[in-house]
Prior knowledge:
A: five-stranded mixed beta sheet; five-stranded mixed beta sheet; B: alpha/beta; Rossmann fold; 5 helices
Amino acid sequence: MALRILGIETSCDETAAGVVEDGRVLRSNVISSQAELHSRYGGVVPEVASRQHVRDLAPVLERAVESCGMGLEDVDAVAVTYGPGLAGSLLTGLNAAKAVAYSLGKPFIGVNHLEAHIYASWLTPANPADAPGFPLACLVASGGHTDLLLMEGHGVYRLVGRTRDDAAGEAFDKAARILGLGFPGGPEIQRVAQGAAGGFSLPRAWMRDTHDFSFSGLKTALLHLAQGQGVYPADSENALDDGAMAAAVRELAAAFQESVVDVISVKLVEMARKYGVRGLVLGGGVTANARLREEILRRSPLPVIIPPPVLCTDNGAMVAACAYYQHQRGEQWPLELDVEPGLPLG
Amino acid sequence: MGDGESAALTLTLRTGGAEQTWRLGCVVGRQARPGDVYLLSGPLGAGKTCFTQGLARGLGVEGYVRSPTFVLMTRHQGRLTLHHIDLYRIGGAAEAWDLGLDEQLFGGGVCVIEWAERAEELLPEEALWLEFSYGESGDVREIVLDTESARYGGLLEELAALSFAGVESLDAGAQ
């Protein structure tokens, strides 16, 4: 009998649930995004996010089980992200998962959000544990994280590098704000950067002799360039007319994107070489960026496993996939589990 | 002059770049006392996180102080507890109120709040405001330190004597 796990994810601004069979077969993946709601603030507003999770979660759960012809009672275990993330948002998902597991008498599994992003790759046609096999170099890049992790086996991680200041996704959000673009910043910058001539170049912070990242200086460099070009602030005296503004924003967005893509792809491949891994695994919203995917594939001499964009951003299926391997290891989680907003991995 | 008396004091400093802003933070961190509250304002990239990273080092915090924008607040342990809060994502004072900042503001550690202007009416008067802005050329930053509380008088006098940061002005008693 296949083991069907319901995964719930509410760590930030997506209310999501999915059903996965035996850790690899995606049965459903329902995501209710709050991006539009938060776009007017240029970022996720925690209280708004919590309230929206409360409103959206029940229908999302229902659709996740019904869309694969099941009822909640047909689920074999309930898994949920308990950290890292926003405390109020995490709490909504955690409480719902406990209620479902307790009322149905099913096993309850707490999942680390960062580990879940890695397990999104187990929902692709490849099984990374068999081909290419461990050890794997993992990049988790999102609004809150830019981590390089060495994965030596199921559940065995070593944190090798991370950002020292801003996360890559946060840098995209702030760059988009400087350029007068919407939220979330990553997709917006990717969209407007298309067709750029590549006339501008922004600095790269290589953080030599480490596997760490730094994106704070890049943000400041973009700001200076945007000021010099009359793009920022948008209402300044020397602001450009509409056509010139669109062209300048396109070039600046491209320069920013290229700098981030260059640093991440080079440092990921460097880390993979140094640790003698067999392959690369990507996860997190930033890895949905087309230029980043293209550049990592171009630079890597090793197989690269990249989930489709919908599994790179936050989702419940990845939580269910991750929980399957925790369940296989015999992990048992108490219903007293609390949220851990700063939960580390590795 | 006791802590309870009004003692408005404003110091304007100029740093030549990120390293000096970091060093300024480091000096503040070394002087920081339990209960200190530092309220940081100013645009993106003006040096708020850089200053806080220096302050953390001055407090003896090991490792890197990452931007707390995503998780809103982080806590670090040095010779005192450092609460690092970022209100960038906050929609207004009412939402900041929901965060419940009592432990961070009044718990005996050192509290640094970035984008503090977004919840100004909630924050204690017994605090030091630091307003960061861009100087006339690339890396130069102007930092205006402003307080109504005598508790920061000694610190401001010490900062006014720093050799690496240019002192623009030190005005006392402006009411």
